[in-house]
TrEMBL record:
Catalytic activities: N(6)-acetyl-L-lysyl-[histone] + H2O = L-lysyl-[histone] + acetate
Native source species: Caenorhabditis brenneri (Nematode worm)
InterPro entries membership: HDACs (IPR000286), His_deacetylse_dom (IPR023801), His_deacetylse_dom_sf (IPR037138), Ureohydrolase_dom_sf (IPR023696)
A Gene Ontology term for the protein's cellular component: histone deacetylase complex
Protein name, UniProt field: Histone deacetylase domain-containing protein
Biological process terms in GO annotation: epigenetic regulation of gene expression
Domain Histone deacetylase residues, every copy: 26-316
Length: 508
């Protein structure tokens, strides 16, 4: 057991990043503060080393972004300018303190990486905001200004001589900014688990389906809702861990968003990762890169979930006891379909995945089942993407009140759901990996799995399509960045061509 302390970053300058024109913003200062207080309360920071954050300088930001974005953020010196700036961006708010906070978030992440390579710490967690994983190039979006994790990875490589870095992003939203920042760089392996829903979910792009052209990118698009911690960890065993064993990173950066947590974002339409799942994912990554596994905070929006989840993740990084993890006997069906596609797609680059695929195919044959048909999945997001792009082009982005706040009743439901599973916790230090046989049986692909996959994915995708159709038909007031009044005005004035609904039948 290492004698070196755990490292952490927490700096109240990042609490100054707060939306002045809309108090309903889900990405708010208390996220960071509550996580820090929770870790203190759980005594997880006792004996840990606090790493001082600092403001990153322009040259460090330029490791991943052009000076243009740096200058734009510096220029935001009034609330009016801040809101105006966001009228051609996707889901972004800014304030006069954004520049300072965003620089401290980067500086803190970099200092944590440095501390790990100066052998001062054994693993660590940067509690930072604004988050970063949606930002790339000159595109700030999705609550993200600069890409903290991508800059930290590039800093490690360019300035510290680290040869290979893996980034693992388990935030519910696609690590699209990170992908655009690191794709095709053979020194960086990138994994993102993310809500996809056949492209009907933001960022409405085919590019984030499983079929990435970059051997070093693993996308696990989630088409169904409520995948569990056991499902996620199973995908680690099936694909991610063998990939990382082949890649051999010297540093793992976790893009630690907790919005896939059970009853976090969108409640039963979200994902179902219970808090200890984050502990187990961190524990397994630490086995690949002992002592050099560093988490950087991304999303997570329901306090009762993200404090619990962050606490468990840190337990995993500290190698403390964790609640026993249940590995499901069969994988959640729509994730299983994705896993088969991933194995088919990536097996040409990874011999271990090829072996796994062959074993699964032999199992199908032995059971008298038809082979899995490797398929290009459907994509439902084209018209949504077009509408978002048009709204941005004409600078008529709705900049406020994207998410309704939870009612007190809803919050009580979230709390109750989380309390229920916490009652079942059985803490232990002994965690055995699932056997290869169990992992194979999880993946049996039969008619039931195929229909379950469809049934699991359909309800939420239908809701998303219906929201879009209702908006373009004028039956729904707003849709995230699309504002009814501004949209209608733009159409009336001939600035914008009205968008067409997604239909399931042809109109002859
Ligand atoms: Zn997120």
């Amino acid at each position: 057991m290492s004698q070196k302390p755990f490292g952490y970053v927490y700096d109240e300058r990042m609490l100054g990043h707060e939306c002045k024109y809309d108090k309903t913003m889900a990405e708010c200062p208390k996220r960071m503060k509550l996580i820090y207080e929770r870790l203190q309360k759980d005594q997880l920071l006792d004996g840990a080393l606090k790493i001082d954050a600092r403001e990153a300088d322009d040259s460090e930001i330029r490791l991943n972004h052009p000076q243009q974005l740096v200058d734009e953020i510096i220029s935001l010196n009034s609330t009016e300018k801040c809101e105006e700036y966001c009228k051609d961006k996707e889901i972004l708010w800014t304030c006069e303190n954004t520049n300072e906070a965003a620089r401290v978030a980067i500086g803190g992440s970099i200092e944590l990486v440095k501390a790990a390579f100066e052998n001062k710490i054994h693993n660590g967690f940067a509690m930072v905001r604004p988050p970063g994983h949606h930002s790339y190039g000159k595109v700030a979006q999705g609550y993200c200004i600069f890409n903290n994790v991508a800059i930290a990875a590039k800093y490690a490589i360019e300035k510290l001589g680290v040869k290979k870095v893996a980034i693992v992003d388990f935030d519910y939203h696609a690590g699209n900014g990170t992908y655009q920042s690191v794709k095709d760089d053979p020194r960086i392996h990138f994994t993102s688990f993310h809500g996809h829903h056949y492209g009907s979910f933001w960022p409405f792009s085919r590019e984030y389906d499983y079929h990435t052209n970059d051997p070093n990118t693993l996308f696990v698009p989630l088409n169904g809702t409520m995948n569990s911690e056991g499902d996620y960890v199973s995908v680690f065993h099936h694909v991610l861990l063998p990939m990382l064993k082949q890649f051999q990173p010297e540093l793992i950066l976790i893009s630690a968003g907790f919005d896939s947590g059970y009853y976090d974002l969108m409640m039963e339409f979200g994902q179902g990762v219970k808090a200890h799942g984050y502990g187990h994912m961190a524990r397994l990554l630490n086995e690949i890169c002992p002592g050099k596994t560093l988490a950087i905070l991304e999303g997570g929006y329901h306090p009762y979930n993200y404090t619990e989840s962050a606490s468990m993740m840190v337990r995993g990084l500290l190698n403390k006891s964790l609640p026993r993890l249940e590995i499901p006997s069969r994988l959640s069906a729509s994730l299983l379909e994705t896993l088969w596609n991933i194995l088919n797609h990536h097996s040409k680059w990874y011999p271990k995945l090829n072996e796994k695929l062959n074993a699964l195919e032999r199992q199908q044959e032995k059971l008298g089942l038809d082979p899995f048909v490797f398929n290009q999945t459907i994509f439902l997001g084209a018209k949504m993407r077009l509408m978002y792009d048009d709204v941005k082009k004409h600078k008529i982005v709705r900049t406020r009140e994207w998410f309704p706040e939870l009612s007190e009743e809803q919050e009580a439901v979230c709390k109750q759901k989380i309390d229920e599973y916490k009652k079942e916790y059985e803490f232990t230090n002994h965690h055995s990996d699932p056997s290869e046989d169990n992992l194979l049986v999880q993946c049996i692909w039969d008619d039931a799995a195929r229909s379950d996959a469809f049934m699991q994915a359909s309800p939420f995708a239908s809701v998303l399509i219906q929201e879009f159709n209702d908006f373009v038909a004028g039956k729904r007031e707003n849709m995230m960045i699309c504002d009814r009044e501004m949209y209608i005005d733009a159409v009336k004035n001939g600035v914008l061509e009205a968008h067409k609904p997604i239909t399931t039948t042809f109109n002859y």
